[in-house]
Write a structure and sequence with these properties.
- The complex is a heterodimer of chains A (about 170) and B (about 625).
- Chain A is an alpha/beta fold and about 170 residues long.
- Chain A is built from five helices and five strands.
- In chain A, helix 2 packs across helix 4 (about 105-115) and helix 3 crosses helix 4.
- The longest helix of chain A has 20 residues, at about 140-160.
- Helix content of chain B is about 35%, strand content about 15%.
- In chain B, a hairpin with a 2-residue loop joins strand 6 and strand 7 (about 250).
- Classes of the chains: A alpha/beta (about 170), B alpha+beta (about 625).
- The interface of A and B includes residues 10 and 101 of A.
Chain lengths: ~170, ~625
């Protein structure tokens, strides 16, 4: 099975860097053949174009990053992404943001979703950030969630399905 | 004599000096001479709003399809079809000037790159140039050539985005059909003059493929950004924030393969350029034919400014005192154009003419500054970037007083616009570009000779336009595509010549001075035009750093003389040509076409207002539009 684990976020933005940091840590581990770990923080359009290129295509994608949604900081949530896509005006705005440099997990899903380049199974691991200011290292509450995030991503990558997160 | 408003005159040898007998030569209380009248005061506008139902506020917050967040306030007289008030609002404090203080000057190359999510490389190069001037070093010729190739590639990423993803949709079927059905109907029965070149039988066919997301031209532009991003990465390591730009040149390791791979990607832009230019020629001419009033959309005085870009490898030595000479030999000539007349191409004169004002911005002033003259002994205003200090002071928004985080840059105290079209215009009229097989400056036009691809070899000619407006900005942007590709080509050929001779050195060793005061400036440009970084180093660390970007110029607010900035002025001159029967159906497309024609690049705290709610969205992206 072809699986891609992708971290998304900005470097040196404290909790906002969870995605790239987790990807860097997981990339140092041993994985079965067919599982790749990459930092996908290089822009949704370029990532979408990478998905377009990969032959054979990835069958499972596990994305991880910090997303602020007003939950308790440090909350780790897992979901299967199945759309739906927003309206075309919103998609257009997200594409415009993407080509202008915005790195965003949501935008990647929308842009790659619209252009139909996402793998068949897309699993998303989000961490609610507390501190997205400039600097290295996570806030204590997000740091405390690091091992949970790593464990969830490993299980999702290997087993698939959001149920795997609870295993 | 190039200054009408600054108290600077030139001696018999052309050396600038302060006019004698002026007690406070740079006082802003002095009136200025301009070719335009001041707009109505805000008090007058409030009176009109209170008295007339047909006069209404038209606010765009944010202006979408621009880089980052820009808000725009306008007051429209819907019965007269005109705009009576316009205010451009940059909504975020950028802060790079503050972040840079006390740092090693080399950090600026990597940190200031982050000011933009599209054109990080231009900030890196501008910063490296400021460092080289301060350190007293210069790159070897091949280092200059490789920089030119890399930064041409970056612009080849930028131009298609503007033409088909950001401004382009304003001319698409999806928009035109909605805002001007009569125009769409006419487009369906208007043959496209360049059908043989771009393949679209009618203007309507062309507009349909400009539709966002699904139009072939939109999707193709996305693809072309990928092609050129790959070329850029060959030289810069990564995109958008390069890793190989250093003071004294580049740190790229070059081989024959590098050049082959670069050319394979660059060559795709020759045919693409031929088609893009013909598309925009057809679109602009169609609008003018249907309604000549479109010539007034986004019009303003022909006041344009640019530092020039892409140095000639035999000329650039990074020394300020020689800037006039190496500036004149750039592949894009520096220049300040006032009311359509090229006033100067001298980088010294361009530099000393710049001031930044903060009367309508969320900053407090500073006292005098430390430099009375530049390193060549030319007089400097206390408002010049080398003297400017960044002192943020947020207050409430007030259209009479302070309303933006952008400053008001002025040249000779005039509102100037920056853009790659200024680069095109200066080069076309100055006739200073070095002899080469591809680009020719005629004094009234720029001839661009594109090699054959699938399409035959072709000469395109951009002519200085009779009118200056939103359409001509976009048309000129289209011509900047072949121009930029050919600059890359000229430099690619030069680079191969160096390689053939076994010359591979691309950088010069240097040391950061640890004692005393050093001063430097990078004169360069972004895809959107003007870019300068003014640097002061004290005992090895940055004591002052000022970034002036194209959108700082273009999004500028009113100045001390109550004259509007370029977006504001262009919107004030824009007629309302949109078709609507009810006021609530009014979309403001003519205003949006005007603003987007400048290709705004703003900071990114976006406040989205609807009637019912306010959504606040924060992102981190291109921040080069705002002063700090």
């Amino acid at each position: 099975m072809r699986v891609l684990i992708g971290g998304i976020g900005y470097s040196y933005l404290r909790d906002g860097s969870v995605g790239p940091a987790v990807a860097a840590q997981l990339a140092r581990e041993s994985w079965p053949a067919g599982v790749l770990v990459e930092d996908l923080s290089y822009g949704p359009v370029a990532v979408m174009q990478r998905f377009e290129d990969v032959k054979p295509p990835f069958e499972r994608l596990v994305l991880v990053g910090a997303v602020r949604r007003g939950r308790e900081p440090g909350t780790v949530s897992v979901s299967r992404w199945a759309g739906p896509l927003p309206d075309e005006t919103e998609i257009q705005a997200r594409v415009a943001e993407a080509v202008m440099g915005v790195i965003s997990l949501d935008n990647l899903l929308i842009v790659a979703g619209f252009f139909e380049t996402l793998p068949g199974e897309v699993l998303v691991v989000e961490v609610e950030p507390q501190d997205e200011g400039w600097g290295e290292g996570f806030s204590p509450i997000v740091e405390a969630a690091r091992s949970e995030v790593l464990g969830v991503v490993r299980r999702l990558a290997l087993a698939g399905g959001v149920e795997a997160a609870r295993a | 004599m190039c200054f009408k408003n600054l108290p600077i005159e030139f001696d018999a040898h052309g050396k600038p000096r302060l006019r004698s007998g002026e007690s406070d030569p740079f006082a802003t209380s002095r009136a200025i001479a301009t070719s335009t009248d001041p707009p109505l005061s805000h008090d007058k506008i409030e009176e009109l709003l209170a008295r007339n139902g047909h006069i209404q506020n038209v606010d765009f917050d944010p202006v979408t399809r621009v880089a980052g967040a820009l808000a725009f306030h306008a007051v429209a007289d819907l019965s007269e079809g005109k705009i009576v008030e316009a205010r451009s609002v940059a909504t975020l404090f950028r802060g790079y000037e503050v972040i840079m203080l006390g740092r090693d000057p080399r950090d600026a190359i990597f940190i200031t790159s982050r000011a933009c999510g599209v054109c990080g490389g231009v900030h890196s190069v501008t910063s490296a140039m400021a460092c080289e001037m301060a350190f007293g070093i210069s790159p070897p010729p091949l280092g200059v050539v490789i920089r030119n190739m890399a930064l041409a590639a970056e612009f080849l990423y930028d131009h298609p985005l503007h033409l088909f993803l950001l401004a382009g949709p304003d001319y698409s079927e999806a928009i035109v059909r909605q805002t001007n059905p009569e125009l769409w109907e006419r487009a369906t029965r208007t043959p496209a003059p360049h059908a043989g070149l771009h393949g679209y039988r009618t203007i309507a066919d062309l507009m349909t493929d400009m539709n966002p997301l699904t139009g072939k031209l939109y999707v193709e532009a996305l693809h072309m950004t990928r092609v050129i991003r790959e070329a850029y990465v060959l030289l810069c390591g990564k995109y958008p924030h390069p890793q190989t730009i250093v003071p004294g040149g580049m740190s790229t390791t070059l081989s024959t393969s590098t050049f082959n791979e670069f050319y394979m990607r660059l060559a795709q832009f020759f045919d693409y350029s031929k088609r893009v230019v013909s598309i925009w020629d057809d679109l602009c001419d169609f609008f003018y034919d249907v309604n000549p009033a479109y010539k007034r959309v986004g019009t303003r005085p022909k006041n344009l400014i640019d530092t020039g870009i892409w140095d000639h490898h035999e000329a650039y030595d990074a020394r300020f005192e020689n800037a006039g000479a190496w500036g004149d030999r750039r592949w894009a000539t520096p220049g300040a154009i006032v009311d359509g007349e090229l006033k100067t191409t001298d980088l010294h004169a361009i530099n000393i003419g710049v001031e930044e004002f903060i009367e309508h911005s969320y900053y407090e002033g500073w006292d005098g500054g430390r430099f009375r003259t530049d390193p060549a002994g030319n007089p400097l205003s206390p408002y010049h970037p080398w003297n400017k200090q960044t002192r943020p002071k947020p207050t409430g928004q007030n259209w009479r007083e302070k309303y933006t985080w952008d400053t008001a840059p002025r040249w000779d105290r005039l509102s100037m616009e920056a853009g790659c079209y200024a680069r095109l215009w200066n080069t076309a009229v100055a006739r200073k570009i070095a002899s080469n097989p591809y680009i020719e400056s005629t004094g009234q036009s720029l001839k661009l000779r594109l090699p054959a691809g699938s399409l035959p070899e072709m000469e395109l000619e951009w002519k200085v336009p009779e009118v200056w407006n939103a359409f001509e900005r976009n048309r000129a942007r289209a011509y900047c595509l072949p121009y930029t590709a050919l600059v890359a080509m000229v430099n690619w050929v030069t680079a191969l010549d160096f390689m053939k001779k076994g010359v591979t050195k691309v950088s010069t060793p240097f040391e950061v001075p640890k004692k005393g005061e050093q001063i430097g400036v990078g004169f360069w440009g972004a895809g959107r035009g003007w870019l300068t970084h003014h640097l002061v180093i004290e005992d090895g660390v940055i004591a002052n750093y000022q970034i002036l970007t194209p959108s700082t110029w273009n999004a500028a607010p009113m100045d001390p003389w109550k004259r509007p900035g370029p977006y504001e002025e262009a919107v004030l001159n824009t007629p309302i040509l949109e078709s609507f029967s009810k006021r609530e159906d009014y979309k403001g497309i003519d205003i949006l076409r005007t603003i987007r024609s400048f290709d705004p690049c703003m900071p990114c705290t976006t406040h989205i207002h609807t009637d019912e709610r306010v959504i606040s969205r924060e992102v981190t992206t291109c921040a080069c539009g705002v002063d700090e």
